[in-house]
Amino acid sequence: MATTLPRRIFGIETEYGITCAMESHRRLTPDELARYLFSDVVDEYRSNNVFLPNGGRLYLDVGSHPEYATAECDQLEDVLAQEKAGDEIVSQLARAAEAKLASEGIEGRVFVFKNNTDSSGNSYGCHENYLINRKLDYLQHLDGLLPFLVTRQLFAGAGKLLKTSNGVVYVMSQRADHMWDAVSSATTRSRPMINTRDEPHANSDKYRRLHVISGDSNMSETSMLLKVATMDLVLAVMEVGAIPANLRVDNPMKAIRDVARDLSGKAGVLLQDGRTLSAIETQRIYFDLVCANIERFSWELSDLHKQALSLWGQIIEAFEVGDLSAFDSLLDWRIKLQVLQAFRDEQGLELDSAKLAQVELMYHELSADRGIYNLLLQQGQIIPVVSKVAVERATKTPPQTTRAKLRGDFLAAAKRTNTSIATDWMHFKVNLPVERSVSLPDPFNADDERVRDLISQM
């Protein structure tokens, strides 16, 4: 008898890079630019750390980085639309900041980059969150995820021109060289691939949150889909105890860097049992495990899970035969590679050219008229996964099948009635005239009488 794939909550947190090109004014500091960027947000909410009507969270992170966290999603369509909605929301802030600068007689163009490194070598992240069952002693299973995380950059990497002691090289991943630990409870001091801080934003007796911080920020919706969908499928295999005990990386930090540098997918990954597998052989093992367990448990997959599984298999086969041209307009690192190669050929540039570095950066710029990825998308050279209508809807409307719906309804009612409230991932509170609060520890719950009651009394 067929069973549905285990339902899971997932979400993405994205930190953005910002800068401003000035015409005839001193350069704004990051803090000053961030104040312009969040000016309208502070005017409306009296804070630069807010939950939005779409259920997501927008805030100013350390280092003057705007950060957007999607609402809780249990469907791939929703998490993709929510992430793209975050890009649109932050891009709108940039356009508003430009207008505010102009109103003060300052000519400047505000750029927002969805990438992971700046020109000084600093890194900022894209964090993935996956809810897992507390009953599973997942700390005992994390080593079994590392070979997958080390090698998934074959399809989820965003590509980067990397300065090395031997000159500039093109690598698959922006984050690979900034990972300094495999598993840790810290995020900044050691910057691990998996953060184990126990903060589920849900009933802590039932759930844990797997916090993955090794992934790149993606412009390509296909890479976004593959990143989340394959992780969801691999976690389902982990949860039934089907990842072999001998699938353990000997040196994850070396492996993730080696894989990033070998665009053929043949980089060796040394396992603790002494075997060396290539990156693509490693992905083949996980793909086969997923397929075997889908058959074993008769899991029914959503259409996007099916699409991702099919693409995953096709990508592995393409690496195995050494021809990835079919993915030149689908995967981030492949799209960017084609852009850079075309510009090099046209201009006669070396890889260490400053012009080429500028082109690489502009691939990640979010504006519709300057960002290279978005221009390619508008020209029809890249096929999106989610529609413009779905993205536009997600900028204002939360997912309808999770706790995010309740948060969105609550926030919308408060705005409509001008009621003083406070909210976070789990708690909704009305401040006046009588303080009342509701705790919502179940992120799968999209309907709650207590929330309806709070709203009715606004």
Question: Can you walk through the features of this model?
Answer:
The chain is an alpha+beta fold. It has a domain of 54 residues. It is 40% helix and 18% strand. It is built from 15 helices and 19 strands. Strands 4-5-6-2-8-13-12-11 form an eight-stranded mixed beta sheet, covered by helices on one side. It has a three-stranded antiparallel beta sheet with strand order 17-18-19, with helices on one face. It has a two-stranded parallel ribbon with strand order 1-16. Strand 9 and strand 10 form a beta hairpin. Helix 6 crosses helix 8, helix 6 crosses helix 9 and helix 10 packs antiparallel against helix 11. The longest helix has 28 residues. The radius of gyration is 22 Å and the shape is globular. It starts with a strand and ends with a helix. The relative contact order is 0.14. The model has no long low-confidence stretch (mean pLDDT 94).
